Known about the structure:
Blueprint: H1 6-19, E1 24-30, E2 33-39, H2 46-49, H3 67-75, E3 80-86, E4 91-98, E5 101-109, H4 110-121, E6 130-133, H5 136-139, E7 145-147, H6 150-155, E8 178-182, H7 193-209, H8 212-224, E9 227-228, H9 230-241, E10 246-247, E11 250-258, E12 263-270, H10 275-282, E13 288-291, E14 297-303, E15 308-309, H11 319-335, E16 339-342, E17 348-350, E18 367-377, H12 378-387, E19 392-402, E20 407-418
Parallel strand pairs: 2-8, 3-6, 6-7
Antiparallel strand pairs: 1-2, 3-4, 4-5, 9-15, 10-11, 11-12, 11-19, 12-14, 13-14, 16-18, 17-18, 18-20, 19-20
Helix pairs in contact: 4-8, 9-12
Amino acid sequence: MLQSTARALSAEVRRVANEGDARKILLFKRNSLTSLGLYVADDSGVADELDDQGGKGLFSRSREHSLAAVVANLAGDGNAILAYRVGNGEMAVVVVVESGIPTIDEIKPIEEAQAITLRYASGGTGFVYAVFTNDMGTFGGADHTNLIADEALFALADKTTLLVGKPINVVAVALGLLVLVAAVAGYFAYADYASKRARLEAVKRAAAADPAPRYEAALVAGLANMGPTRQSLQNLLKMMQQYPVSQGGWLLTGITCSSATAQCASSWLRESGTTQDLASARKELGEQLEIEDSLLRVRLIRQVRMDNAGMPAGAITGGAEAAIALDSLLQRWSNAGLEVSYSRTAAQPWPAAPGVELSALRPGLLVSRSPVSVIAPLHLAQEVLSQTPERLWWSDLSTSVDLAKGEVLVTFKGFVYGR
Length: 419
């Protein structure tokens, strides 16, 4: 237990600060709790990132502030997360504040920062958190996410966030629960140093046994690269429309484009020409000839550009309302004469996470995906793309030519994602 005298408490604070090799410290009080922040100089360049040319940032020659305390000022007595991208964009500062007291303050690679932010913001701890970030593209997928400008963040710095040197007067420190929060290194706990170590070990054991963080990390990675952008698919449709029905004595029977290979393969049926005739006619397009066993059929492979994109976690919806909206859209397409294939019972858990039994995850966290395919006339294909909802992603396009009717059909294949 911490000693009740100011001198003993001061000695305890200095001991912990020295063990943490802290250059400066900060006492931050919220209601009946007081946190001790330890600032450890590092080479990450974060201090430079949190300053500006006018010396009005969180760090300058004359003053240094605790980012964790700044976020605590932002949160008040509530819960908040700051995901602040820094440096060359590969790292981010993550601060988590619970009931007005910082509990996490770390510098992490972007993927780990996304996983931490998603875990808390998605309700994984059972509480609601407001998320603040300077990069909505990376951290904007969660609910309650707000864009915060650097100036707004710096404006929250005041005398309560200012780091001071050692030693300090700790007479005003409330005895009892003491949370240690490292201003940059992430270093916190309750009461005395011994109980802090015991609590952290218990948290580590619980985290190691909890499959949720590992699944959430896999989910963040999967959501970042869902498939071709709508623009890429529109470009593919335009390219397909430019294929001739016949060329060099060969008839076009179909085209298949796959996002997995970034290739389009066209199939041709010999009418009167030779393989050399077709290869020569298509040579300027850079297509690679694949000769099949039969003298009547060949395939031509074309490399295509497919720009992939991701989906925010907030776009993955579930429940009756989301099901009704999707079903109604597919029914309207069917009424328009499109051939729709979709069954919600075919849903499978997604994505796979190494070492995680997906069936053990709590309801609401697990994402599933159901295969869907739509066959539409070529003249309606662009309309299908424009009406596609955010949680439906197409991965493959193919066309087939009905030589008797002279009709071109486009087949869309992809997945619907839901909770």
